[in-house]
Amino acid sequence: MPYNELRKDYLLNRWVVIATERGRRPTDFAKNRNTQATTTTCPLCPGNEHMTPPALLVYLPEAEGIRKDKDQGELRHKNWLIRVIPNLYPAFSPPKDPADQEQIMKTPNFGYAIGHHEVLVESPNHNDHPAEAKPTQLVHLVNAYKDRLNEIAAKPYVKYVQIFRNNGLEAGASLSHAHSQLIATPFVPRIIAEEQEASKNNWNQHEKCIFCDLIQKEKTGPRFIADNEYFIVFAPYASVHPLEFWIIPKRHAANFLDLTQTETESFAKTLKASMKALKDLVNDPPYNYGIHLAIDKNAEDYYHWHVEVYPQLAIWAGFEKSTGMYINTVTPENAASEMRKTISL
Ligand SMILES: [Zn+2]
Ligand SMILES: [Zn+2]
Ligand SMILES: [Zn+2]
Hints:
This protein is α+β, with helices and mostly antiparallel strands.
């Protein structure tokens, strides 16, 4: 092919240059990485619970299963499996006065950052990242995502809940203990709003969910990575990150609040298998993932939740920062073909 390709995202008005000419092989990105300094005491490890604010939710193992509780005052539960705490330096904070949640935006371009910012400690074991954790532990994690989403999405001032994970120092994880975060915002942030808008337009035109269509299309194409009864993993057509992939549930749903037990177990397995495949392929790269979903009842027909995984293998520089257009040196087709070799789902 004489030119690099220009590709547009399935939904967003976002363009990427796929550098097929000077294309790099995914394994070119494997390198020796500095392990994170762990000399200081980890505030998320068991025994250090007093170093954090009281937990909003803990999962405690009991004979009949899991008991859910929270810390109160000076009490800090021990022997937990999952622990959710408020972020010590929150980007968004709950309203201190009921009046503050009435009108969050004071002018069209000024408002208070009212919402929630939480840290979900995924395991008592420091290094239990999804690629390594037991599926049973990841089931607890998914259930904790569900519990927090359920509680926070019900608050009248919350319009969106972003659950995400930063892995590795270069991807913004200031603590190396396995953890996810949740930020609830008073409006739907731009990228999700654009996705929702575009999928709504598609619904209005064709009475079909665009993500359900994508699953059918990508299942048999060159960007397919793996699937099972409930989930599919593929590299999106206009990936902006080298080795980017998405995990999408096959059953249509705007969010994961009504996942069944079987689906939850399947999600945990799929998450583990794909994160392990990435880790094995390029030697445990820094990455971020985010769960895109809708909490607005009106979006139930046209929006379809999914996980977007962004390995951090390239540096966005002058062009990307000044244009919002991206250059990806690994074709999604190559990425998928390499991931297919390392994944076992
Ligand atoms: Zn730790
Ligand atoms: Zn759908
Ligand atoms: Zn998305």
